[in-house]
TrEMBL record:
Pfam families: Epimerase
Gene3D superfamilies listed in its UniProt record: NAD(P)-binding Rossmann-like Domain
NAD-dependent epimerase/dehydratase domain mapped to chain residues: 4-67, 81-206
Domain of life: Bacteria
PANTHER family: BIFUNCTIONAL POLYMYXIN RESISTANCE PROTEIN ARNA (PTHR43245), UDP-D-APIOSE_UDP-D-XYLOSE SYNTHASE 2 (PTHR43245:SF13)
Protein name: NAD-dependent epimerase/dehydratase family protein
Species this protein is from: Ornithinibacillus sp. 4-3
């Protein structure tokens, strides 16, 4: 892997991916429709284009080629079709960020728990299906109609200081201000991944010859009740969990669902332990509201 094209490389763990590629000596081209500054300076090349505009994308990529493309912005089968048509013959490999949401509920889910090779393919837009179904359809398109080798990275909720969704911040703010936090079922368990680890893993799997879906997340399972009390302990605040008063709750899922990473670990990737970095992240996020 000497050259890489990155869609979605200017925010959150897309930035970590670009930094990881640069650290490997890869020549990176960032494709974005934004004009806002990024931290890369003259270390990357840039293409300004709307990834979801098929004709504009074909025009912007005309006459260019890369060893690999990374796509953080593929949400549906229609998105996958746009990218396939634009990149056919221009890359050797393609890695896109899918989601653990492709799975149904359950603990310790390995890659065989959802099979995109046989899943009924439908051409859908993001506003027509749930997030998880959109990702299932994107995977189904690539693995059934793909025109280049594909890796689908299945990850859980990503945590980090650059998380523009502010989901962890939501709970830290509530506990800081003495407000209740709502969960349908506080005993529901999850795994998470740090934004740096997500970026590092993307670059690592991109440098391999692996094809197909693959899970990635930090080791260690945590229930939402335990996570809230960990936040309370670190902030020295009382935690009030309610299952009665329905409120906004970004992690308020109603089922345990977490990923098994034996495949990636067996290939040689060493995952972090959640509790090695979660406490400090909670402290750092808390500092932003003081």
């Amino acid at each position: 892997m000497k050259t890489a094209l990155v869609f979605g490389g200017t925010r959150f763990f897309g930035r970590n991916l670009v930094e990881a590629l640069l650290s490997k000596g890869v020549e990176v081209t960032v494709a974005t429709r934004q004009s806002s500054p990024d931290p890369f300076g003259d270390r990357v090349k840039r293409i300004k284009v709307d990834r979801f505009d098929g004709e504009a994308l074909k025009e912007a990529l005309a006459g260019k080629s890369w060893d690999i493309a990374f796509d953080q912005l593929c949400y549906t089968s229609i998105d996958a079709e746009i990218m396939s048509q634009a990149l056919e013959g221009k890359i050797k490999r393609y890695v896109f960020t899918s989601s653990g949401a492709v799975y149904d509920r359950g603990p310790d889910l390995n890659e065989t728990a959802f099979d995109p090779y046989t899943y009924a393919l439908k051409m859908v837009k993001a506003d027509e299906v749930s997030y998880g179904e959109g990702k299932r359809q994107a995977e189904a398109y690539y693995f059934q109609k793909g025109v280049f080798p594909v890796v689908a990275l299945r990850i859980p909720i990503v945590l980090g200081m650059d998380d523009y969704t502010e989901r962890l911040l939501h709970y830290i703010k509530a506990i800081h201000h003495g407000e209740s936090v709502y969960f349908v079922d506080p005993s529901v368990e999850m795994r998470f991944i740090h934004q740096k680890e997500a970026g590092d893993f993307l670059a690592w799997i991109g440098d391999s010859d692996y094809e197909g879906p693959i899970n990635a997340c930090a080791t260690g399972v945590i229930s939402m009740e335990t996570l809230m009390h960990q936040i309370g302990d670190l902030l020295n605040k009382e935690v009030i969990i309610t299952t009665e008063e329905e409120k906004e709750s970004p992690y308020g899922v109603y089922m345990t669902r977490y990923l098994n990473t034996d495949k990636a670990a067996g290939m040689g990737f060493s995952f972090t332990a959640l509790q090695d970095w979660l406490p400090q992240l909670i402290r750092d996020v808390h500092e932003t509201i003081k």
